[in-house]
Amino acid sequence: MEDTATQAAPALKEIFDRARFQRIAAEMVAIAPGFDGERFMALATNDLDALGIMQRLRQTAEALRGALNCDFARSVELLRELAPRIGHGFASIVLPEFVALYGRADFERSMEALHYFTRFGSAEFAIRHFLADDFVRTLDVMRGWALDDNEHVRRLASEGSRPRLPWSFQLKNLIADPQPTLPILEALKGDPSLYVRKSVANHLNDISKDNAGLLLERLAGWDMADRNTAWIVRHALRTLIKKGDPKALALIGTTGKPEVDVAGFTVTPTSIALGGRIALRTSIVSTAERPQQLVVDYAVHYVKKAGGTSKKVFKLKEITLPPAARKELEISQAVRDFTTRKHYPGHHRVELIVNGETVAEGGFELRG
Are residues 109 and 84 in the same domain? Predict the structure, then answer.
């Protein structure tokens, strides 16, 4: 459910601000007295206000290189000492970024460095450059990481090899054929760490967008009696479930075509201004002679700038509905602009969806 924030959060790029750079410089001087702190600050803060978060990340790594008066091997030794002193997970990603920029000619040392640095700040972005350079060799290392004792390393094996990792370039070969990473996902399908399981589910969801048939065939053979595996499968299939894919719905235990009557479905108010809220309320009555496992979603058809609409499906509730039983459901959602979605005036159709089938419709008007 989306909601309005009481006050704007700081921009994500402010993770890399002058205070952060001053701390890094001070720590590096303590580790290596020859580190040029003034040069680091000058390089790291160059045109800083104009840079986004990923640009700041790269510039910070470049600034470390410019202030370290040593080769890659010695630089890695010093940065290993810095890693536990940075004190911020995302800021620590600068260390894998350094390896991706300057260590690709030194494969073994770089793999060892990423294996270590990912414990402080994920190396998911950095490892992709090595996959692009030498896919077979790098993936072989990552398959070993999937068996590591450390959950951060195991997660890197899955997250770094995702076909469509956000904030990074796509791995086109894995979009075309995801089978090379399946051994990693098989090794992690019952992982005890939620941190790892989320990554595996996201990786599988990536696969579902381009290779749904292959994914469904593979997941059909997984043991859903294992609680961790079942959690992964349910979250991995979220895109296909929202599309109403019958095989995906069957895998999570739904009972197929819904046998229900909708005793009421309302969207209120019927007219709002941007920043307002809508409330959805419905009453679903079973017409089946057996209990039903139902996935209840709703879809909003957002008006686009050119005048058409774009459908977005939201999760409402998963329920068990006994014969003749009635279930009341409701949810509230703010209608406000996001960086990923801008709203435009007009009629917004709203669908109530049960097990992938539209069972009722409503809507609201967004005023200009």
Answer: yes
Q: Please tell me the distance from the alpha carbon of residue 180 to that of residue 184, in angstroms, as a whole number.
A: 8
Q: Does the pLDDT at position 232 exceed 70?
A: yes
**Domain contains 4:** no
Q: Which two tokens stand for residue 333?
A: 């959602």
Whether pLDDT at 5 is above 50? no
What element of type H or E holds 323?
none
- Is the domain of 50 the same as that of 127? yes
If asked whether residues 245 and 322 sit together in one domain, one would say no
Bridge pairing between strands 277-286 and 260-268:
antiparallel
Helix (H, G, I), strand (E, B) or coil at 277: strand
Domain end residue (candidates: 223, 251, 279): 251
Do 235 and 104 share a structural domain?
yes
Range of the domain at 164: 12-251
Provide the domain count of the chain: 2
Measured distance CA(124)–CA(136) in Å, rounded: 17
Sheet with 260-268, edge to edge strand ranges: 260-268, 277-286, 326-334
We report the CATH number of the domain holding residue 40 as 1.25.40.290
Q: What is the H or E stretch that residue 331 is in?
A: strand 326-334
End residue of a domain, out of 230, 251, 272: 251
Residue with structure tokens 């370039």? 169
10-49 confidence digits (pLDDT tens): 678 899 999 999 999 999 999 999 999 999 999 999 999 9
Angle formed at CA 236 by CA 294 and CA 290, multiple of 5 degrees: 20
Is residue 356 within 8 A of residue 245, CB to CB? The reply is: yes
DSSP assignment, residue 50? G
Tens-place pLDDT, residues 293-333: 999 999 999 999 998 999 999 999 999 999 999 999 999 99
In what order do the strands lie in the sheet containing 309-321? 271-273, 357-367, 346-354, 292-303, 309-321
